[in-house]
Each structure stands twice: as structure tokens, then as C-alpha cells.
Amino acid sequence: MHLQQTKVGSRATGGPQYYFHDVPRHVKEFLRRRGACPVVLQTPYGIARSPFTAVGRDHKLSPSGKVIAGKVGHDRIQGEESIGEAIRYWYGLSPGRDFQRISVEVVIHEEHFVLIPTTVLMQGGTREKALEKPLFPLSFHRDFQSKLWKKQLTARRAAAPAEVAWAGKQIRRVVEENRASRKANVHEADLLRTAGALSLLGLELGLYLTKGFDCPESRFQFADLPPYPCPVEIKKRSARFDYQITRYTDLPRAVVLCLDHDLVNPPDHVDVIELSALAAALTVA
Question: Does the model's pTM come out above 0.85?
């Protein structure tokens, strides 16, 4: 399955359009049933909201953005901007050349239309560039450390070894103090004492709220990638995230920051950062 822009440089009614080609049956049926659906875009960090809409061949978007009947004849992606340029932005692709073809996969996840770019071919090019589809890209715990986290820690050690050493010491101190304490009234928010250390590693925790996700305005920025907003939930044990699993926001994406990871089979698009595992990795290095 792939995307091709209707005309290079075109700005058709409704914004730039990319047509789907070789659409699998389940995607066709979904678009025929829904008419149109907001697109959730896979990025190197995980899924992200996007300003794009997947539109079925028998529908179109009115100037006000309402889905109405229309005989366009192609399943497509629409938006005020180009989906190709959004993919270029998230994956750090070189500017200046238009796309000849963007190969994609589509996953329908709880009524979300998740668009996953897999390869791109530039105009005039002969070789496709593969775009990695990461598995739990923001997870770092005793059982799994993502390639993205490993790359980030290597880059930070090379750029600022003293800062990374200090971050490891701070995280390890919080982990050890929480494990040693027998006081029943130590709140999970005590883990926020690691915020300064985590900021040196690429995670900026947002305001801690008392409703919904604990830190919904958090942000990751790794290596040469753009910043990625993602809600972070603070837990001493990741298994206690079960409460939030049944109370997702409309986009099922979150990261659990915990002292110890014991959540069995985390849901899709939920990553876990285990402070004890992170402290151990920074100490060994």
C-alpha cells in the first residue's frame, strides 16, 4: 500500500492530497463505513495526533471541514499541509526533493486510523529509504530497552558525560531512598525529584495535575528528532496503571514513569520507563 501526491506542488481544494494505491480490503471497508476519519501518524517516538484526515472515495470535506457525499473516486489523505512534509519532519528526511511514493501500513486501533510510513522514494530516485517501525520506542525497563533510548543515552554520554553521570546519581538516590523507606505516606509524586535528571536525558516532565494523567504536557526530545509531546503517568509500580487503561483520552498514547515495572502485557502505545533500570544502566556506563 502506498501514497502518491495528486500533482507535485499542487494545492487542490481542501489542501494537498495524497491518493492511496493498492488499498487492502479492511482499510477500504473502514473508509466506506466512516466516510472520513482523523489520521494518527506513527513517528519514531510512537503515534501522534496530526492535522490530516483520511477520506473515502465516495466522500469529501466541505470548506467548513464537514464530511459530505462526493464522487472524488479515490481514497486519500487530506490536510491544509502535506502529509509528505509531516513525514519528512518527524523522520528527519532531507528537504528539497518531492516524494515519488510513500509506502505505508494502516492499523485501525480502537477506531483510530493509524498511518505507519515504512519506506519513501524521492522524485528521480532509484532506491527506497526504509523508515523504522519501532517497538515500544520510549520504553526502558528491566525486560526491554528501546533502540531509541539506547541511541539517546549514547549521544548524551558523548556530548555531556558529566551531566549524564550526575543524572544517574540523582535517579539512583531517589530509587534507593524509596526502596529503603518503610513510611506508608511516601507519595508516588516523590519520584518527581528525578525531573531535573530526566531533563538532561531528553524528557521534560510537565505540571503534575490531580486529574487525568499526572503530567499530560510532558515532552521528549531525543538526538536530532523534533520534540514529541506525550502524557506521562507517575507510578511506584507500573501495574497500578490498570486504572488508567480503561480511562484513556481519545488518543491512546501514554508513558508510565515508575520505580519498578510489573505491568504484564502493556497495551499498544503505552511505554514504560523504569527508574531502577535506568539508574542501573547509567551506573554501569
Answer: yes
d(CA 242, CA 248): 11
Residue-wise pLDDT tens digits, 100-152: 899 999 998 777 899 999 999 988 888 999 999 888 999 999 999 999 999 99
Q: Which of 280, 282, 283, 178 is nearest to 234 (CA)?
A: 178
Closest to 21 measured CA to CA, from 45, 3, 48, 44: 3
Strand arrangement of the beta sheet that strand 228-229 belongs to = 203-204, 219-220, 228-229
DSSP line for the chain: -EEEESSTT---TTS-EEEEES--HHHHHHHHHHSEEEEEEEETTEEEEEEEEEE-TTEEE-TTS-EEE----S-EEE-SS-HHHHHHHHHTPPSS--EEEEEEEEEEETTEEEEEEEEEEETT-SSPEE----SSTT-EETTEE-HHHHHHHHHHHHH-HHHHHHHHHHHHHHHHHHHH---TT--GGGGGGGHHHHHHHTEE-----SSSSSBTT-EE--TTSPPEE--EEEEEEGGGGHHHHTT--SS--EEEEEEE---SSPPTTEEEEEHHHHHHHHHH-
> How confident is the model over 48-73, as pLDDT tens digits?
999 999 998 888 887 777 777 777 78
Q: Which of 128, 124, 150 is nearest to 139 (CA)?
A: 150
